[in-house]
Amino acid sequence: MAKKQYKITVPKVGSCNTEGTEARLYKHDEVIDATETWQEELMNTFVANGWAMETKMEATADIEEAAPVRARNDKGHYKKDDPSTPDINEAYEGGKAPKKTTKKKKTTKKKTKAKA
Question: Is the separation of the CB atoms in 89 and 97 below 8 Å?
Answer without folding.
Answer: yes
